[in-house]
């Protein structure tokens, strides 16, 4: 069954009207028809099975039938702080790390970050990133969409290290990254194509952060976070 996140306030109704981009995706991309079931999600962990009752030109209606059991979210909460790469690399990170089980994303601005995000385009970028996360969450049938913050400077991220039980920065000189095991709050920091500067590495470690490596080779920035998540999550 197809999963979607309609506006939460609509889920208080017995018949839910779906329009906008959700309608376009269901009707024109997935070609959904009257009588088919879908799953409606409220982004807090709850879901309902609903049956399509009508499909119009600009909206469709679905009647809620019953609660729907969803897979549990990962017990390890992982925030991925990733320096945006060229082209669609950051978008691929958002998509694939959502599918694997990331809980939160921070677009990270470092000394060597090539992609610059102006304040004039920041809101537009965040909205696009949220749509990518939403689509990936629906596709993999997760119960909650990972959060995404506004872009953050590396020095500002350092001030929040204390909020995480396991703050890891991926670097080839670090100790091999191992499964986190049990519950925990993890910060996973991934640099840009040019890596982190020596000053950033020193600042990270002086604030209590740890260095972690993935393998004997240096991975692409869009591959590193995905590989790390696969190692950390049970």
Average residue pLDDT: 93
Structural class: alpha/beta
Q: What is the highest CATH level, the class of the largest domain?
A: Alpha Beta
Tally of individual domains: 2
Question: What share of the residues lie within helices?
Answer: 25-40%
Account of the 3D structure:
By secondary structure, the protein is an alpha/beta fold. The protein contains 6 helices and 12 strands. The mean pLDDT is 93.
Q: What is this structure's SSE topology?
A:
Elements: E1 2-4, E2 15-19, H1 20-29, E3 37-41, E4 47-55, E5 59-67, E6 76-82, H2 89-100, E7 104-109, H3 119-140, E8 147-148, E9 152-153, H4 154-158, E10 166-176, E11 184-190, H5 198-206, E12 210-213, H6 221-232
Parallel strand pairs: 1-3, 6-7, 6-11, 7-8, 7-9, 10-11, 10-12
Antiparallel strand pairs: 2-5, 3-4, 4-5
Helix pairs in contact: 2-3, 2-6
């Amino acid at each position: 069954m197809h999963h979607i996140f309609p506006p939460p306030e609509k889920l208080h109704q017995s018949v839910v009207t779906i329009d906008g981009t959700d309608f376009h995706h269901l009707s024109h991309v997935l070609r959904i028809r009257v009588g088919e079931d879908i799953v409606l999600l409220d982004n807090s962990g709850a879901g309902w099975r609903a049956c399509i009752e009508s499909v119009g030109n600009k909206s469709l209606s679905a009647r809620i039938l019953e609660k729907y059991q969803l897979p549990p979210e990962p017990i390890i909460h992982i925030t991925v702080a990733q320096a945006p790469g060229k082209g669609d690399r950051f978008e691929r990170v958002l998509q694939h790390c959502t599918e694997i089980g990331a809980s939160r994303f921070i677009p990270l601005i470092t000394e060597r970050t090539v992609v610059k995000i102006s304040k004039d385009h920041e809101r537009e970028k965040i909205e696009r990133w949220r749509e990518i996360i939403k689509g990936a969450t629906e596709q993999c049938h997760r119960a909650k969409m990972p959060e995404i913050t506004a872009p953050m400077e590396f020095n500002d991220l350092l001030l929040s290290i204390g909020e995480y039980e396991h703050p890891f920065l991926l670097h080839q000189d670090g100790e091999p990254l191992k499964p986190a095991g049990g519950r925990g709050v993890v910060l996973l920091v991934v640099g840009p194509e040019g890596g982190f500067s020596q000053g950033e590495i020193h600042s990270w470690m002086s604030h209590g952060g740890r260095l972690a490596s993935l393998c004997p080779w240096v991975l692409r920035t869009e591959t590193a976070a995905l590989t790390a998540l696969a190692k950390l999550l049970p």
